[in-house]
User: Fold this.
Amino acid sequence: MRDRAIPEATVGRLPVYLRALVEMAAEGAVTISSGDLAVAAGVNSAKVRKDLSYLGSYGTRGVGYDVAYLIHQVRRELGLTQHWPVVIAGAGNLGHALADYKGFTQRGFQVVALVDDADAKVGQVVGGLRVEHVDRLAEIVAREDVAIGVICTPAVAAQDVADRMVAAGIRSILNFAPAVIAVPESVSVRKVDLSIELQILAYYEQRKAVLDEVKDGRAARGLAEELIPAVDAR
Assistant:
């Protein structure tokens, strides 16, 4: 890691750049301009150049950035040059889907354990893992050297699971439960709430509908203004 902290907004864009770069490398790209990367990432080229400067990468005028080296730089900065062991709490539908997802391994993450408190689920095999009881979480974290915990439980259980993860030594948590969890300042939490994201999309859909109505109304008034003189002339 660098001594100089990278802005949070830039950190949030690095995975987007990485995904775009990996796709371009798969298509045979050797170099890429900041403009092309900006289009792929949905930002402007000045922002791309600023973000990549935090990695010590400035590209070459007239040539751009070396794709393979830039992938290495981004992966290094994100800590993806090693595999991070992950434990998932909650063996419901979402927990099953995440445990079965093979893309995590390609991106530097290895789901090493799945836990639940339901006796009916403990012992099931999901994604090649046997579901263990949540009471064994501390043992699992120590055994697998777990770095990241993922909460896929109902809201009512989220805080208890978070407390267990913190007590077990986990310092980074991805929370899919529709609940706000309280953790010490030393613990990093990222929340993924699909219902909130859908509500935000609903807001934009509603605005689009309103704008369309306004445009239609203006068009109708314009047509009427054109027709009225013609009618009066008759």
About this structure: The two ends are 80 Å apart (CA to CA).
